[in-house]
Amino acid sequence: MNAQKTAQTSTVHPRLEIRNLRRTFQGRNVVDDVSLAVMPGQVTCLLGPSGCGKSTTLRMIAGVDMQDAGEIYVDGALVCDTVHRVPPEGRSIGLMFQDFALFPHLSVAANVAFGLKGSKAEKQARVEELLEKVDLLGALKKFPHELSGGEQQRVALARALAPRPSVMLMDEPFSGLDERLKDDIRDSTLEVLKAEGTAVLLVTHEPDEAMRMADEIALMRDGKIVQQGAPYNIYNAPVDKKSAAFFSDINVIGGEVQGALVSTAFGEFLCPGHADGTPVEIVIRPQHLRIDFDRAGRGPNPTPQDGTPARGIVERARFMGRESLVDFRMDFDGSILRATVPSVFLPKQGTPLWLMLRRERCFVFPQT
Ligand SMILES: Nc1ncnc2c1ncn2[C@@H]1O[C@H](COP(=O)(O)OP(=O)(O)OP(=O)(O)O)[C@@H](O)[C@H]1O
C-alpha cells in the first residue's frame, strides 16, 4: 500500500488526518482517542505540558511507532491502521526535530539535496529554490560548522521540505535556539511553510510559540485533546480552569450557585445550568482586573461592566518591562489576587487599592 499523492492544489482532503489514535504503554493510554485534521498550508500546534503524549502522537504519524487503535491518512490515503502500515519513507512526511542533525561532512547544498530524486539539474534547481527561500543561497558551499545555530536550523528546514512532503511534523524545532533569534526564525519558517503549501503539525509546550505560529491549536492533556480551535478562541474561551491556566497566570474566586447566580465580594455572577449548591470558580486573567484608588476608604463607584469593587492591600509590585505585576492581599478572605498593568505601576507595599473584575472577561467553571 502506498500513500497516494494528490495534486498540491487539492483542497478536497485534509493533507493530514488522524482518527481516534490510541497508544498504550504499560496499561496506560498515553495517547487517548486523538483525532485531528490539517489542511494544506495550515499550521496546527499540538500544545500541552511535558508528558501529555504530544511526541508519541507525532511518532505514530511519522511511522516510527505504531498505534494500538485508530487510523492515519495523508492526502486522503490510509497510511496506517492497526493492520496496514506504510513505512515512514513512503508517507510523504517531512520531519524536523529539535536536535536536527545536518550531515557534518556534506556541504549545505548536499545536505539539502540528500534524499532528493531526479536528474542532477532538477535537484540543483530545487536546492537553490529552497536555499533562496530560507535566505541562504550564499551559503550553498559552506559546511554546517561554518553556520550559526539559526542558519543550521534554516538548512534543516530546507532539507526537510526539499522532497515536497505533503505533511511536515515539527517537534519543538526552535527550542535549541537563542531566545532572541527565535521569533525571527519562527516567522521566516512560517513564511516558507505557507509558501510550500505543506500541512504542518508542530509540537510545543510553549503557549507563546503556539499563539505565534498556529492557525489552529490542539490543546492536549493526559493523552487527550481537550480543546481545539483558533488561538484567539482557545485563549478567550477556555474549556476549563486548567486550559485557562496554561496560557497565563489566573486568579480564582470561589463561590456557590444559588438560583443560577454566584455571590462574591465582587458582586453576583450568572451561572446558568448549574444546580443550587454547586461549588464554582470564577477565573480571570491578571490583565483583566481593574485597579482603582482608595479615595479615603470610599473606593470607586461601581459600574455595570465592572461590578462591585473589593479592597486589597498591595503585597508586592514588580516591573517586568512591558508591564507591571501587582499582588494584592484581599480584605474579604485574605487571598492573593494578581493584576497586571501596562507599563510602570509600582504602588508601595501596604497601599490600599480597589479591584474590579471585567465581567466579560470572567470564566465560570464548576470547581475541580
Ligand atoms: N516507549 C515508551 N514506553 C513507556 N512509556 C512511554 C514510552 N514513550 C513515551 N512514554 C510515556 O508516555 C507519556 C507521553 O510521552 P510523550 O513523550 O509523548 O510526551 P510529550 O507530551 O511529548 O512530552 P515532552 O514535551 O516532555 O516530550 C510519558 O509519560 C512517557 O513517559
Automatic annotation (TrEMBL):
One cellular component (GO) term of this entry: ATP-binding cassette (ABC) transporter complex
Enzyme nomenclature, EC number: 3.6.3.30
Family matches, as SUPFAM superfamilies: MOP-like (SSF50331), P-loop containing nucleoside triphosphate hydrolases (SSF52540)
Superkingdom as given in the UniProt entry: Bacteria
GO biological process per UniProt: quaternary ammonium group transport
Organism encoding this protein: Pacificibacter marinus
Keywords on record: ATP-binding, Cell inner membrane, Cell membrane, Hydrolase, Ion transport, Iron, Iron transport, Membrane, Nucleotide-binding, Translocase, Transport
Domain ABC transporter residues, every copy: 16-247
Name listed for the protein in its UniProt record: Fe(3+) ions import ATP-binding protein FbpC 2
TM ranges: none
Pfam family, any one: TOBE_2
InterPro entries, per database record: AAA+_ATPase, ABC_SmlMolc_Importer, ABC_transporter-like_ATP-bd, ABC_transporter-like_CS, ABC_transpr_FbpC, Mo/tungstate-bd_C_term_dom, P-loop_NTPase, Transp-assoc_OB_typ2
